[in-house]
Amino acid sequence: MLAVLAPGQGSQKPGFLTPWLTLPGAEARLRWWSALSGVDLVHLGTTADEAEIKDTAKTQPLLVAAALLTAEQLPMYDATVVAGHSVGELAAAALAGVLTPEAAVTLAGVRGREMAAACALEPTGMSAVLGGDQDEVLRAIEAAGLYAANRNGAGQIVAAGAVAGLEKLSANPPARARVITLKVAGAFHTPYMAPAEESLGKVAAGITPGTPGKILLSNRDGTAVDHGPTMLLRLVRQVTVPVRWDQCMQTLADLGVTAVIELAPAGTLAGLAKRTLKGIEIVQVNTPDDLTAARDTIARHGTAPTHEPHPEFSVVVSGTAGTFTPLPDLTEGSPVSTGQLIGAIQTRQGPVDVTAHDGGVLTEWLANLDDPVAPGQPLARIGGQL
């Protein structure tokens, strides 16, 4: 099974898109996306210096465009799983069919500008905590008044919050851990980004998302999201909630992924996968010269196309954490209409209704009465159409 990964902020390098502009149509594609994102992607990917491409407002659309541009050179039809780290999740959503490429780069432009504006409101930042006992690291981060913004696995947790808190953590690091200050504009994936989330949500509300055509993993908890509107909501909420890349990698392991391809600018996610997912094949796509190896990997690990008929299903997933209560008189084989209530999630704040996104026949319950469920967890499978 093959997974394709889209990197996040911090992976960019000066001039990394230069060799890609030799491909037919690549420059025109970037100029079109530049008009949508509000930044000059050709300049940023070729002649801009390191300082300019560290600007959050410019980096985010640049990374999404780069991932999509390189993916267009690959037979993505045969990729089974897609995931993206932080802003890379917009690219992954486009590769899965939830967003169009145009919507993805537009949202990336808005996301970058609004997060940069939120960073300017007060002095905040981020620090990587490497090594140490995970529980001790998390307690130290909380004690310093900070947030665990990224949990990347392989002994890497990123703390974020007020500068004073970061200085406190650096002065008193957890046992056997190193604290490294990151050169970022502010505390991403924390409540400090609330103004950016609000602005992004207003733009995202005008998008009609599609249904994922691949297994699309969510940064929120590593679960596969198969409902377009749910994924779009998660993409907006992601601005203020932690990135659980460690859980995404655990899902890759659970799925039995045998190969990973990281799109340009590759390196960071490939390194994490190498340390966490033992024994799998890893390919980094940084220049057109890497495409031959990537295509070969897809041919050997991807899903072969088939013209045989197969059943069409939709899966209802949980929108929150709690315990599941299915509707008592709804049994497998029962007809279900679009928007019909099929159960509820019992939470501390009260019950949250669960409804069917599509009509059909309740083919299988995937969760039972009083089962604990997590956000994004599958609850029921509905087959066919009414």
Automatic annotation (TrEMBL):
Protein name in the entry: [acyl-carrier-protein] S-malonyltransferase
Domain of life: Bacteria
All residue ranges annotated as the Malonyl-CoA:ACP transacylase (MAT) domain in the record: 5-323
Catalysed transformations (reactions): holo-[ACP] + malonyl-CoA = malonyl-[ACP] + CoA
Molecular function per GO: acyltransferase activity
Keyword line: Acyltransferase, Transferase
Record keyword Acyltransferase present: yes
Any Pfam family: Acyl_transf_1
